[in-house]
Amino acid sequence: MKNFDFVVIGGGIVGMTVARELAARKAGRIALFEKEDEFGCHASGRNSGVLHSGIYYSAESIKARVCAAGSRRMQQYAVEKGIPLRKCGKVVVAPSAELLPQLDVLMGRAAANGIKLEKIDEKQLAELEPLAARGHGVALFSPTTAVIDTKAVLRSLAEDLAVAGVEVVRSVKAVGASGAQKILRTTKADYGFGHLVNCAGLHADRVAHWFGAGKKYRILPFKGVYKKLVPETAARLRGAIYPTPDLRVPFLGVHLTRTVDGEVIVGPTAIPAFGRENYGLLSGIDLAECPGITRDLLGMLVRDTGGFRTLVREEFGRYYFPNFLRAARALVPSLGRGDFRSCKKVGLRAQLFNIEKGALEMDFVIEAGPASTHVLNAVSPAFTASFEFAGWVAGKALGTAA
């Protein structure tokens, strides 16, 4: 049986950067396990590629502590490695007058987190994004927002791991573990470890439960789908156009992002998925998990936890294209049906649900277990924050390792 000082489960951006960080700290023999043939087959390889500035997060959150610094480090890494990067900036506009006060909330959060954010008038907005909605006289501009080629980042990190001597084991699924015996069981063989770091994303709660950790949590997946703008319309957008978030509900809503290859994607939606890999209409549905997912969703709906009724009403409504178009036109009024085409991009958000509170966890969540550290909630902006967040996780793991 092979033995390692540290075993990392999960070959997404968090698992890869954690393994890289442990290697940089000379933590001993390190192995990274990924059940797919390639890295980043799930959230890390399916997101929009936006490197967020960090303006949305309250100062006491882990997200606020690692997002801006993570973005700076990721952008520096891209320059050093020659990875495609567009420093495009982002405008934030209020889809309705009701949401205008939220602009001041974002300004306050940006100031508290030391992030550059500018309040602009309609003339300045028109210069930055000629197509953006200008009905309320004021908007925000985030100059540090950028977009990156996520697949290129993952390929580069794989090269880093090889150079650092991390043993990468792909196409092997973890099926069980013992913190007391310090054994990881997989579909290939058993492996010994000194400490295990769980970065399994959509399956992170299952791995944590093997160690008796994270018992009050389970993953509640949400599906995001996109549409694209036709090239002629996409060429007229310069960067990213986002709505002012309704901070009473969990997710951001439809926005427009110009990617590194010049396409403009519109979305995502955020509806409950009935399986941890339910990317299609029916494919990936997990019948064994459907009752639990339904129970959790109905509970939040009945209690209206965190504005969940509003979220459900808006998000399910956007599957009817006229409603999706209406949400997009609140940001870019000139858009019409003919400006859109279908998009194959589908992502799943590994959202953590707190069983005791009956609510979604919106911040990153890390929990220690026997000979283990568990990253239970690493949703957006995890890609942006990954280099900085990995240092946080590695520090936790090294501090608890025997």
Task: Give a quick precis of the structure.
With 402 residues, the protein is of the alpha+beta class. It is built from 12 helices and 21 strands.
Shape: globular
Computed Rg = 21 Å
Mean pLDDT: 95
Q: Strand content of the residues, in percent?
A: 25-35%
Number of helices: 12
State the helical fraction.
Answer: 25-40%
Low-confidence stretches: none
Tally of extended strands?
A: 21
Task: Report how far apart the termini are.
Answer: 20 Å
Report the biggest beta sheet as strand number plus sense, adding barrel if it closes.
Answer: 10 strands, mixed
**Strand pairing plus helix content: what structural class?**
alpha+beta
Structure, explained:
The model has no long low-confidence stretch (mean pLDDT 95). Helix 1 (13-24) links the parallel strand 1 (2-9) and strand 2 (30-34). This protein is of the alpha+beta class and 402 residues long. It is globular, with a radius of gyration of 21 Å. It has twelve helices and 21 strands. The two termini are 20 Å apart. Strands 5, 6, 7, 13, 14, 15, 16, 17, 18 and 19 form a ten-stranded mixed beta sheet that branches. Strands 1, 2, 9, 10, 11, 12, 20 and 21 form an eight-stranded mixed beta sheet that branches. It has helices spanning 13-24, 43-46, 62-81, 101-112, 122-128, 150-164, 204-210, 231-234, 290-303, 308-317, 321-329, 382-400; strands at 2-9, 30-34, 50-51, 85-86, 90-93, 118-121, 138-142, 146-148, 167-170, 174-178, 183-186, 190-198, 217-229, 240-243, 255-258, 264-267, 271-272, 340-354, 359-360, 365-369, 372-377.
